[in-house]
């Protein structure tokens, strides 16, 4: 199993000399994409990582945090403040410590009201039916009260990468041999990837061509504090979430700064505009138009329970209101029951023609509890409907492919022509290695704190850190089985920590947090003609980086936007 | 106590011959403004009446329903249908019986999503904190799935009355002697009205002038099925609720008809535009401007717990976004603690100058649990802030004043000049009488089913119907005390019943329902100059009119809009 978090990130020249990290100073040591124990809703969680480890020492010191204990959720007061730790460097546009408490309370209240009136909401897990029936059990989505400072140059850099990654995913998807070969060892140890590859093989056998190719991706980055470089975490090619809610958070922050910016010394214009949902809807509508059947629908493949449904509904709503395109929502099991393939390849679901299949489920093993769901996936793949994503787009976003693309000369020889583009892509790649690279394995055993071991099979704290990296690597070396194919090694990224007001369940928590920037990209291609290839808004996610002495702390993540510095 | 529901409605010439009702046919017999057992949130309930009694007989039959038993809430299925009763006349633009079930399900889903995304929400009483903290425990506001048919001529009639009633309230408010004299007997038996009158007397003694007078009223009507006439239930001069949410329901209905109208045979353009919240905010902003202090705020007087807070927040939000006017929310107790009156009459709350006091609390005895709240009310009344409403506007909306204005020649001799206006007002008046009118009392004893006895003290099913009217009138006659001053008699109105889809808590109920139309009116006057006097949108409320054999049934009310026929 295990292609949950699609990733695309390579061994960057900058980080080949990873040994240099030993002498470096770190502010925060994050687990990149460690996961939850249950799949179904992971994709729509705000952070894919639940636990992050933070250096408790001063930033000029280097610390190894190897413990893995999980601590329960933070207890909350109305505005809760964690003890402040000396030495954490924050280069913030705003020093939150200096903000008047009354002003914070006012902003908190206004922000909660704003969220309720403007649909910045999710289903409240504590309320029954809230993941099934719209309109009941609503609660504001978790959000940061104020946008996080982010250098404009790095934001531009990330934005400029979007069309390049869009194109790269498309090219990788067309190289069936590369996908099959790269994933051949993973296939042996990961049943989920194996099933995806089987569908992919069938399509290759059928010589199935996807003339209309729609990609709605999100490439995630962190800003490495020490190197001041933007490093990619992964590219999501399936079910890139929060295009709907992220726009609202940007709007919320602009609105707060319009009213309170003067007192805070902040300018609302420095929150970049965000029209992710409008651009995603436009791309989908264009794909729908290309399909050329006025009666056809967009099928949103959903999980049977979805607490992040309003994010998805925003996209459907914009599709309907701006483009008069209707969506229907079906689970894979329902599609198996109601789906039908006409001889000409037309996909019918409940008797209705489907022009575009948009996956907001199907990325996790738990989305396929029986053969029924796999039949549905295959049925859709065989059809002439536009798949977002197709099976090859899906596979192009896997962690293993991310690592394979990181190998020297792969990008250059197979996928990209433009040298500037290649340089830009290389620049954002964190170090990424296969376990058959014995040199790296030795280095990681020597300095495990500089690496993360990521299993192909994700979903539930499976990432391995610190001393566990060393132990696992030594065990695998000794065993000498195929099990090593289930892992890749990735450079650990140390983003800066900043003081943040995090809003959850109506309560404001003041805490130290780290942020991850996601850049949406929309891509539409009809055979040789690229109809759309653009950067399409952004998502900032911010997560508590608090810690107890020497260990790991439970944290939570919120939606955020950015303030350009 | 009891000036909860402000009313203004007179004995109309049309209904002087109330005996004619005996021969009439009735479809539905409603309790006009019977109340709940607890005050604090009544004003913002969707219907002020919780229980209505319905004729179970065919419309050509007359029925007396005297029972008062309360039955628990209806049990609900996904789309619940009550048994259909033969003989109920509905002249609907749409025959709901013929609507395809699949189509209903689609509309239900879309409507629930729409509500969640567009802020058509309330606090869910079953969730703790939902009445105190914004952003948590949200649920869609109860609403009708489709607008109710309403004759365009009657809608226009109601709209045209708005500026006349605005002006009438203002004139009545200026006649201190009339207010005090009319309420003198009520004062003896109703401690709440008595306290309001005390404040009013103090203002008269101080010769306090309100130069800037702001009225945000709502006049409520029902369409009497038998006489085909629009009859007024009351005018609300304090805390006229739902200006925010009613606009959204109109928008929701328009949106549904844009998408499904063709299949339903309905035209979205026949749902009248509704900009109640924008017009109310504009009136408030103009009053704020007239107060002429750029730093001054609007004070919203609130209850400590408020599940209808989002309706109020919409108004504050529009004030802020469109007019850059800031509101603060305080309870009467907080105002007592933080309020201060400067020698020049300036009202300070928490050190901030208040330009406009907007009451969304203070209309019910339970809003004044101690002397603290009365002190706050007096403090505000003494100030130079614009009160919405002032004590005299508040009193002008009481039931007793409604009845006093109904006396022959009162309108003409004291308050209105224009004969056309007088005729229009008279036309909408239901019969309304004092209990010192022995002729009417005799008639009511003879035909109690044609009357409602309304106590000045409201709040908790205090209205008296049917045989109870007869018994109470006979007892009062025998006792010969002042107790009769606590009641007025009102003609009962029999609106038509129509099949309706009512949405509550994510569940669609198909049931027979009756509707009440509220027309908002905004009025602003600076001394002799009328700055604003207009009809300002509408509110339709629809309520289940179902019944068990021979008795009273529990029902619930939803927000609605109208479809002009």
TrEMBL record, chains A, B:
Q: Which PANTHER family match?
A: GLUTATHIONE SYNTHETASE (PTHR11130)
Output this protein's name: Glutathione synthetase
**Subcellular localization, per the record?**
Plastid, Chloroplast
Subunit structure of this chain's protein? Homodimer.
Q: What EC number(s) is this enzyme filed under? A: 6.3.2.3
Entry binding sites for Mg(2+): 234, 236, 458
Organism lineage string: Eukaryota, Viridiplantae, Streptophyta, Embryophyta, Tracheophyta
The alphabetized UniProt keywords are: ATP-binding, Chloroplast, Glutathione biosynthesis, Ligase, Magnesium, Metal-binding, Nucleotide-binding, Plastid, Transit peptide
In the record, which residues are listed under signal peptide?
A: none
Q: Name one GO molecular function term.
A: glutathione binding
Q: Which cofactor does it need?
A: Mg(2+)
Which positions fall inside the Glutathione synthase substrate-binding domain? Answer: 297-396
Q: What does the entry's cofactor note say about binding and number?
A: Binds 1 Mg(2+) ion per subunit.
